[in-house]
Design brief:
Blueprint: E1 3-20, E2 25-38, E3 43-48, H1 54-69, H2 77-88, H3 96-116, H4 120-123, E4 131-137, H5 143-147, H6 150-162, E5 166-170, H7 175-189, E6 194-198, H8 205-216, E7 220-224, H9 232-241, E8 246-248, H10 254-263, E9 269-270, H11 279-292, E10 296-297, H12 305-316, E11 332-335, H13 340-345, E12 356-358, H14 371-375
Parallel strand pairs: 4-5, 4-11, 5-6, 6-7, 7-8, 8-9, 9-10
Antiparallel strand pairs: 1-2, 2-3, 4-12
The structure holds calcium ion.
C-alpha cells in the first residue's frame, strides 16, 4: 500500500458576531484540512491548528512534506513522522511545522483504522470509556458583553441547561473586569459546575498571581495559560503561589517541549492540541510523559469535526491520572462559538448529549466528511 497524494483544503467562513479573547478580535473562522490518498482507494483526513497561518501551512504540506511522503507506506506512521520532523528539525521544531505534520499524521491514523476496520481508539489501545465528558468553551468578549456583562450570565446558564458539567470562560481583559465576570458567571451557574478560566497568556506572573488569589474564592477548576508559553519559570511562580490548578500546553509542541513543561512542574493539567503538537502519534508520547509525572491530560481542541473526532478517540484511550476511584476524567473541549465549518463538517455526528459526546465507533476517525459542503468554504 502506497500514498499517492496529499491535498490541503484551506477553509474560511465569516461569523455574524465578532468575538475576542485576550489577544485579538475574530471576524471569521479558518481551518486547514488535509486529505491523504492511497493506491488502494482508502483515504484519510487530518486537520492542522493554524488560525490564519494556513497559506504557510499549505506551502509546507504541498511543497516540503508531500514530495517526501508520496510513495510511502501509509501504515508506517512512526517512520513518516520521524522523516518529516527530522527534515525540518534544524529550523522548525515547533509551531507551523508540527501543525503540518499533525494534519498528515491524523490522516494516517484515519487510514490505519479504515484498513483495520477499527476505530482509532482501538488502535490506540482501547477505550476506557465509550463517551467522553465534554465541557463548553465560550464566554468570549463580545460587544454585547461589553455593554452588558450580564450577557455572560445568560450564555453560561444556557450551557448549564444544555447539560454541560463544565464551562470555560475567557479572562485576560484586566484584573477588575476578570474578577467581576468570573463572579457573575459563578453566581449564574452555581457551585456544582466546573468553571475554568483562560487568560490566553495575557498577564505577567505578578498579575496572574493576584488574579489567582481572587479565583481561589470562586472555586475555579483551573486557570489556563496565565503567562506566556515561553516563560516556564513564570508558570512555576504562579503555580506555587496559588491553590487553583494551573493548566497550559496548547502552545507547546512535541514530546521535547512537553518534557520541559511536565518535568519542571509548570502545570497541574497539560493540554496538547492534537492538530499542532505533532498529531496523534506525538500526543501518545506526550500522554506517556504526563502519566509518568502523574499529571492530568485534557487536550486543547479548537477545530472542525476532524479535530473533535481525533480528540475523542485519543481521550477515550487515556487512563485517568493519577488513577483512582475518584479520578477526575479527562474531558473534551467543545468550542461553542460560531463556526459554520465546524458545525457542517460533523453534522449530528459529534453532538453533546447531557454533557457527554459518544466516541465514534466506525473505522478510522469514524466521521464522514462531506467534500461538497467543504467546497462552499474553500479559499482556493
Ligand atoms: Ca485556551
Amino acid at each position: 500500500m502506497k500514498i499517492t497524494d496529499i491535498t490541503s483544503h484551506p477553509l474560511r467562513c465569516k461569523i455574524d458576531q465578532s468575538f475576542a479573547y485576550s489577544q485579538k478580535w475574530l471576524e471569521h473562522r479558518s481551518a486547514l484540512l488535509v486529505k491523504v490518498e492511497t493506491d488502494e482507494g482508502v483515504s484519510g483526513w487530518g486537520e492542522c491548528f493554524c488560525h490564519d497561518a494556513w497559506p504557510a501551512l499549505v506551502a509546507l504540506i504541498d511543497r516540503v512534506y508531500k514530495p517526501l511522503v508520496i510513495g510511502q507506506d501509509p501504515l508506517a506512521r512512526e517512520v513518516i513522522w520521524s522523516l518529516l520532523y527530522n527534515w525540518t528539525r534544524d529550523y522548525g521544531q515547533k509551531g507551523l511545522t508540527t501543525a503540518a505534520i499533525s494534519g498528515i499524521d491524523i490522516a494516517l491514523w484515519d487510514i490505519a483504522g479504515k484498513v483495520a476496520g477499527l476505530p482509532v481508539s482501538k488502535l490506540l489501545g482501547g477505550n476506557f470509556t465509550s463517551r467522553v465528558e465534554a465541557y463548553a468553551t465560550g464566554l468570549y468578549l463580545t460587544q454585547r458583553a461589553i455593554e452588558d456583562p450580564m450577557a455572560l450570565q445568560e450564555e453560561a446558564v444556557a450551557y448549564a441547561e444544555e447539560g454541560f458539567k463544565g464551562i470555560k470562560m475567557k479572562v485576560g481583559f484586566g484584573l477588575a473586569a476578570d474578577v467581576r465576570n468570573v463572579k457573575l458567571v459563578r453566581q449564574a451557574v452555581g457551585d456544582s459546575i466546573k468553571l475554568m478560566v483562560d487568560a490566553n497568556h495575557a498577564y505577567p506572573p505578578s498579575v496572574s498571581i493576584r488574579l489567582a488569589q481572587h479565583l481561589e474564592h470562586l472555586g475555579v477548576f483551573w486557570f489556563e495559560e496565565p503567562v506566556i508559553p515561553e516563560d516556564l519559570d513564570g508558570y512555576c511562580e504562579v503555580r506555587q503561589a496559588t491553590t487553583v490548578p494551573i493548566a497550559g500546553g496548547e502552545a507547546e509542541f512535541t514530546r521535547y517541549g512537553f518534557l520541559q513543561l511536565l518535568s519542571r512542574r509548570c502545570v497541574d493539567v497539560v493540554q496538547p492540541d492534537l492538530c499542532i503538537c505533532g498529531g496523534i502519534s506525538e500526543a501518545k508520547k506526550i500522554a506517556a510523559l504526563a502519566s509518568a509525572f502523574g499529571t492530568q491530560l485534557v487536550p486543547h481542541v479548537w477545530g472542525t469535526g476532524i479535530a473533535i473526532a481525533a480528540a475523542l478517540h485519543f481521550i477515550a484511550s487515556l487512563s485517568s491520572e493519577p488513577p483512582s476511584l475518584n479520578s477526575e476524567p479527562s474531558m473534551l473541549e467543545l468550542d461553542r462559538t460560531e463556526n459554520a465549518i465546524r458545525d457542517g463538517s460533523s453534522v449530528g455526528q459529534l453532538a453533546a448529549v447531557d454533557g457527554y459526546v459518544a466516541v465514534p465507533k466506525g473505522p478510522g476517525l469514524g466521521i464522514d466528511i462531506d467534500e461538497t459542503f467543504l467546497e462552499k468554504y474553500k479559499v482556493f
